[in-house]
Write a structure and sequence with these properties.
Order of helices and strands: HHHEHEEHHE
Number of helices: 6
Shape: elongated
Strand content: 5-15%
């Protein structure tokens, strides 16, 4: 059965590829295929559905940045609640070479502190409120910027059966990298 409909969906994917990027095409073709299968009355336990989606991974971007302040421990817990398989978070070094989980090279966009991340030490950074500018759903008062060790501990605690993690390792303006911590 799967083999008989595969050429049609490969054609759908290729047509999508003409108009969109690779990832968008795969996503769009998958959505179209899923909608068509549901419209035809297939159940989610159908063999074709299972074969196509059994290896699909859902990755939480910056933890779960739409539902909690990005790159925080709360974002990891929110991602777990939504059932993601993996999370992506960003690592940057403070001025004293401590790896923190933070996206930008400055604090300006997500906190009420201004300036470069590398201009502060971990002792100064660990008290910064990472939720002060968060406008999404939920209430996350005084969510701190986590140290990499804290984030990894939270991941291990939250996903007791294991979780995949990908850390986007950045270099600060001095060229120092957090790679040795990954």
């Amino acid at each position: 059965m799967f083999e008989s409909i595969l050429p049609f969906w490969v054609c759908v994917l290729l047509v999508c590829r003409l108009f969109f990027g690779t990832y968008t095409s795969v996503l769009l073709a998958s959505i179209l295929f899923g909608a068509a299968e549901l419209f035809r009355g297939r159940k989610s336990d159908d063999a074709v559905w299972k074969k196509l989606y059994s290896d699909l991974s859902i990755v939480g971007h910056k933890g779960c940045a739409l539902n909690a302040p990005e790159n925080t421990l709360a974002s990891v817990r929110e991602a777990h609640k939504l059932g993601v398989n993996a999370i992506e978070f960003d690592i940057i070094l403070t001025g004293d070479d401590e790896p923190i989980v933070f996206h930008d090279s400055t604090f300006d966009r997500t906190t009420d502190v201004t300036g470069e991340v590398e201009s502060l030490t971990w002792e100064q950074t660990k008290h910064i409120d990472a939720s002060i500018k968060y406008t999404g759903p939920g209430n996350f008062p005084k969510e701190r910027i986590p140290h990499l060790k804290e984030m990894l501990r939270e991941c291990k605690k939250t996903w007791t059966k294991g979780v995949s993690g990908y850390e986007r390792i950045k270099a600060n303006s001095y060229g120092k990298s957090a790679e040795r911590y990954a």
